[in-house]
Amino acid sequence: MLLLGGWHWSATSPLLYTLQRNAQYAHFGYTKTFRYIGQPKVKEDVYNSEKRIAEDSLIYKKVCDGTWENWKSWDESTHRMNTTQDLEPLHDFPIEHFTQLVKGDPTVSKYLDFYHALHDHVISKGYKSVGDGYSGYRITNDFRGDFDELLSGIKSEFEVKVLFIVRDPIRRGFSHFLNRLHAAHLRKSELDSSFTTPVKQWVTEGFGSKKRDLGKIYEAEFACLDYVGGIKKMISDFGKDNVHVMSMEELWEDDGTSKRELSQFLDHPIDHLWKNLYAPDRGHLVEFDRDVPCQAFAQDLYELTPDMYYEYKKKYQHIYDSWKEMFGSLPLYWGEPIKYE
């Protein structure tokens, strides 16, 4: 089993597209981030609300009635991984496995049974591994459900490899922030307390000019994450030899070293990477591309200027220091602003 222990807006979708579509290394099932386990324990969490659970139920319904394949596959904000290329290997995968998984309360035993069945099926189609693009993320980010049981079950029944893909912390955080702003505007709902009053007004008014009101964005808070804690946790759980860390920037833009190291870790050739709109990073100048529809969503709302970058860098320097302490140096392009053109 391949677990993706990653963070949003770090090119996780292009990485999964690479592994499933181009390299035919791992197949991730019916979508990228179906929440197979843990819902009953986290219903109070806004991120895992009843609405999101209902969305996952919709996937099951559409798989059953034959309408999931290619449904809104190229919407601007989607990363469903439900194109014909994605789902053709599952055309003869018995729906009973999916039914047993989703009916009733989620349990770890159901999760393991489903992934055993999915693994055996995709191996017969030429893949080398089954993948989970969600549980690896939840384990990394303090998964609250039956964590110990889930972790124990995965380790006892699968040979596990864990992949981490990371991006410059400030640029990743800013991308995530813009997405949240736009999503809140589309919902026309009350913005949560993490948005300052000027930012709430800016969103409510429809953003206005993308070049003005710089001070409002300066006041905003966004999640600039320290990756090291999650990486150390997975190394502790699965062993150093079973965990591989790579920066998005180097995987797509270095001299090929990062890609060769990924191939060696997986013991599988990774020759052709899927398109990644963040490498080279064009910031607010990014344009929609149907091959990676989720990446452009809301990214053109505001420019991350050099002055803004350096202002946030003062606050988050400890994150860069933490990375250097663990790995010795910063990855390509980290710690400096990009002149977008």
Determine the mean pLDDT.
84
**Percent helix:** 40-55%
Q: Characterize the main sheet.
A: 5 strands, parallel
Query: What's the overall geometry?
Result: globular
Order of strands across the main sheet: 2-3-1-4-5
Discrete helix count:
14
Total strands: the figure is: 5
How many angstroms separate the termini? 40 Å
What is the N-to-C order of secondary-structure elements (H for helix, E for strand)? Answer: EHEHHHHEHHEHHHHEHHH
Description:
This protein is mostly helical and 341 residues long. The protein has two domains: 2-167 and 226-266, no CATH class; 169-224 and 290-317, no CATH class. The chain has helices at 12-22, 50-65, 84-87, 95-102, 108-124, 135-140, 147-157, 169-187, 197-204, 214-218, 228-238, 248-253, 257-266, 306-327; strands at 2-4, 26-27, 129-132, 161-166, 243-247. Strands 2-3-1-4-5 form a five-stranded parallel beta sheet, with helices on both faces. Helix 2 (50-65) runs antiparallel to helix 4 and helix 4 packs antiparallel against helix 5. The chain is globular. 37% of the residues are buried. The model is unreliable at 38-52 and 209-215 (pLDDT under 50).
Could you give a quick summary of the protein structure above?
The protein is mainly alpha-helical. Helices cover 45% and strands 6% of the residues. It has two domains: 207 residues, no CATH class; 84 residues, no CATH class.
What keyword list fits this structure?
341 residues, mainly alpha, 2 domains, five-stranded parallel sheet, 14 helices, 5 strands
Topology readout:
Elements: E1 2-4, H1 12-22, E2 26-27, H2 50-65, H3 84-87, H4 95-102, H5 108-124, E3 129-132, H6 135-140, H7 147-157, E4 161-166, H8 169-187, H9 197-204, H10 214-218, H11 228-238, E5 243-247, H12 248-253, H13 257-266, H14 306-327
Parallel strand pairs: 1-3, 1-4, 2-3, 4-5
Helix pairs in contact: 2-4, 4-5
